[in-house]
């Protein structure tokens, strides 16, 4: 194992997994800590409460389609929502670099509140630390969240079966491309915006259909490929993806071609991947398509008997290729 | 109002108050957000749940008596404990500078786990972000926590009455002095250690006496003076402190004299200030003194009719002086 922390340890790829397995798990091991879930689900006097945390270090802090404030609240709402929880309370802790503009801070705080309001959650507690100039890169935000898991929700990787269909609620990779377009060194422009948004409202439309929904994840760092690889790891099934069925913005594909990136690893901040019972997949797709945040929803693949533990892509021209987990991300500081 | 964020905005003094009042409150205003409390108390299906968050940016990250890991867990446990809550679940989110030593990380993670275990709380969810070299100062840790408030606990500033006694569980200012002693530019050495520790076990000894306990706070940033000023602000009472009764380590007083600092503003990370019914003050003091973390507990003052909204100190030589809230802290990055 390496002796220092590298950027890739925070990428959501293989090195992140290794860090979790070698450093955090041996220490924090307890019944609630679930590596593959976006929130812990704890029991408080018989009530299932989802609890999650994320720190946001995105650069730049303002980007097409959002800002670090919107991102930090959306991200935590989404981590709760993909556990089937109703997001209820959010905390917000800021680390600010000395000299940061007060008007930018106001803009970010108002964006935080606006995003929270949209989903009906309250920012109930917070903290502010200020560090010296060059002690932090402008502003970092941590949000933690509490959500209530309704009794009818029963999600778990162990419920996934061969034949289950995989659904995504829209175009893949928009967030990474929007961030990329703002990095001066890359020098290109796109009209595309980040998909950064809370998706609880969309997910709440699954009420009444929870029996058919096996598992959900939001494909943020590491993208669709990263999340599916985490799910399939050491399992008795494989995943087949259909390239033709995966929705992309044209600009995303153009940027990926230009920069030699694979769009399946790009981050998303307003997307959910669902594993659903095959017979109900079309019904759930229809529910999603009827919602503004799910218009371009698509069934992108299915759970297959083998090769076990692998994700593979059936390409547009009919070939098969394994979609592995990356060792490091294609782009740091995207969230 | 100033146009940029200064270090003092994170000091816990007047500028922090102003930031909260002018920027956060107008946005985040809701029934749960209580500026004076260390945690929000929310209601989940009839259960009172305390929820708190704090980011830790302490420098240096290893100091006499603790490290950023122990501090981050103690701080959140204490923020829950002073609400009368039993700390239950903690989240832990790291922002790490590229190049950080893996062995230091392991040491910190093990310190986090050790401190959590001591109080019987679980680290149930986490996150790791890595930023480029010089994008952050070594490591920042956010912990958020959930605690359960027992039915018999009824704490609130509105329960404070003239005549109530004020208790602290030991020597004041140890944490700041321990941090100070490690800052190279100051060039002095002390044998004193930070008081950094979880104090839930001590506070839990109040069970059976909650009727007599009106309000609690932990005097971290801003110190005893900062916390008491926050409590007294705009209230119909004042606070009288008795210099002779406030416990200090001798070294703390020596360092303060040397550097021209007032020990009442120094930060503490294992202390609680209690407002208790006068008739029960001695009983509660005895309970505290019987505990290893409360051996040097003392009744340090009382709530007085006036001057309203002010904290004043009766000095050892019998004079009175007002103890105001500082505009900026005497020392940044102490927690």
Tag the structure with descriptive keywords.
homodimer, 335 residues, alpha+beta, 60s Ribosomal Protein L30, Chain: A, Phosphoribosyl-aminoimidazole Synthetase, Chain A, domain 2, 7-stranded mixed beta sheet, 8 helices, 26% helix, 25% strand
Can you summarize this structure?
With 335 residues, chain A is α+β, with helices and mostly antiparallel strands. Chain A has eight helices and 14 strands. Chain A has two domains: 114 residues, PurM-like, N-terminal domain (60s Ribosomal Protein L30, Chain: A), CATH 3.30.1330.10; 166 residues, PurM-like C-terminal domain (Phosphoribosyl-aminoimidazole Synthetase, Chain A, domain 2), CATH 3.90.650.
């Amino acid at each position: 194992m390496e002796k220092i922390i590298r950027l890739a340890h925070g990428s959501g790829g293989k090195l992140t997994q290794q860090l979790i397995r070698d450093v955090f798990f041996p220490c924090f091991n307890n019944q609630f800590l679930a590596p593959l879930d976006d929130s812990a689900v704890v029991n408080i006097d018989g009530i299932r409460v989802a609890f999650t945390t994320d720190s946001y270090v995105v650069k730049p802090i303002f980007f097409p389609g959002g800002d670090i404030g919107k991102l930090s609240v959306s991200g935590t709402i989404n981590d709760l929502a993909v556990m089937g929880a109703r997001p209820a309370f959010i905390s917000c802790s800021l680390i600010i670099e000395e000299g940061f503009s007060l008007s930018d801070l106001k803009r970010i705080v108002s964006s935080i509140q606006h995003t929270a309001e949209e989903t009906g959650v309250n920012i109930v507690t917070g903290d502010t630390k200020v560090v010296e100039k060059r002690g932090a890169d402008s502003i970092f935000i941590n949000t933690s969240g509490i959500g209530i898991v309704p009794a009818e929700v029963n999600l778990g990787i162990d419920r996934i079966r061969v034949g289950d269909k995989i659904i995504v609620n829209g175009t893949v990779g928009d967030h990474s491309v929007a961030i990329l377009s703002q990095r001066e060194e890359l020098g290109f422009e796109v009209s595309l915006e980040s998909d950064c948004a809370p998706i609880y409202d969309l997910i709440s439309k699954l009420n009444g259909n929870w029996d058919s929904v096996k598992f959900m994840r939001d494909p943020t760092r590491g993208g669709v490929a990263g999340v599916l690889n985490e799910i399939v790891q050491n399992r008795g099934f494989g995943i087949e993806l259909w390239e033709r069925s995966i929705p992309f913005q044209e600009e995303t594909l153009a940027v990926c071609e230009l920069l030699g990136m694979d769009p399946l690893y790009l981050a998303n901040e307003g997307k959910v991947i669902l594993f659903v019972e095959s017979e109900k997949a079309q019904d759930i797709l229809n529910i999603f398509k009827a919602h503004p945040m799910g218009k371009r929803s698509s069934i992108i693949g299915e759970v297959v008997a083998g090769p076990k533990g692998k994700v593979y892509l059936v390409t547009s021209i009919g070939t098969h290729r394994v979609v592995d987990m990356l060792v490091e991300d294609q782009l740091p500081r995207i969230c």
